[in-house]
Amino acid sequence: MINFFKLTIQFIYFFFVSLIGLIITMTGPLLQKSNKRENILKLILLSVILTITALIFYQMLEQPV
């Protein structure tokens, strides 16, 4: 029998990893063209998004299967 909970976690994990990759790909060229203040703001935004994703993964792993 298929364990749907593990499939859901794998799908959510794949979705968030792709989202992080997409965000990094989008911010790469923007960091080269803009000034330092905008770069700092974009890096802060990127780190906040990564932190939220890590917290979501932590909560998912803490739940009993």
From TrEMBL:
UniProt keyword annotations, A-Z: Chloroplast, Membrane, Plastid, Transmembrane, Transmembrane helix
Species of provenance: Bulboplastis apyrenoidosa
Designated gene of the protein: ycf33
Regions that span the bilayer: 12-31, 43-61
Annotated protein name in UniProt: Conserved hypothetical plastid protein
